[in-house]
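Morning!

As promised:
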Amino acid sequence: MRTQNYSKKRQAIYELLLSTKEHPTAEWIYNTLKDEYADLSLGTVYRNLKLLEKNGMIKSVAVVNGCERYDALTSPHSHFVCTKCSRVIDVFYRDEVPDFIRNMHIDGADRVDYFSLIYYGTCNNCE
Amino acid sequence: MRTQNYSKKRQAIYELLLSTKEHPTAEWIYNTLKDEYADLSLGTVYRNLKLLEKNGMIKSVAVVNGCERYDALTSPHSHFVCTKCSRVIDVFYRDEVPDFIRNMHIDGADRVDYFSLIYYGTCNNCE
DNA sequence: TTCGTTGCAAACATTTTGCAGTTTC
DNA sequence: GAAACTGCAAAATGTTTGCAACGAA
């Protein structure tokens, strides 16, 4: 089994994700970190995002315009996607809702692991 | 403004989608119709899916493994995605649920147009 | 010294598009 | 005949991967 080493760039990617509510793409992360890490490569960003996701440290919360969007906030919540500007906004549950969703009967499913609730519309910025 | 013509292949694509619960990909549609329409091209399938979607006749219900999945059942319902075999199964609401979801407060949203609720897990076939 | 990590570029997979020919109305 | 539709192949897009060099333990 492979052991994971410490990696400065992985750390930077994770901390950037922790510090933002942008739900960024790999590209955005790459461009943002490029200032500090001039030799960063896009492949590294992709590799580390997958790795962090596998470790459960981050989550892929949506695919917007064909781009995977990531979030370091892993507690259960939902998202709103602006169909004009592609902004992704956190949506937090009033606590009854998830139970309602969780109890839904699904014919053909053996086991339900998780669910994803995404709202689409126009955000405040796009009026 | 452009007027839409009748097209035999568009019709076939739509009817195929109406006839199946597979929530197929463009590729699946292409391969399935290839028997009857030997000269069908994948580009035509993609173009018509986009067009049918814009007309509101079909919906893109999920992106599974990077593939868009389509559904001709446009009445509000949800989906279950098997993370092993990528099967997509319809999930119908007990009628109270959508209101609960619909009334969720979304900070930063100007207008909510629709939402998508997708369950992930293992399907019956995958045990 | 071992093996995880990275840059780079090539490869990949899905989807989109330009163009010339075909079909629909 | 005008405009929509199509096949084809090329391009575009986002992501993955092979490899040789680099870095951490």
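The interface with chain A takes residues 63, 78, 80, 82-83, 87, 89, 91, 93-94, 96-97, 100-101, 104-124, 126-127 of chain B (CB under 8 Å).

Hope this helps with the figure draft.
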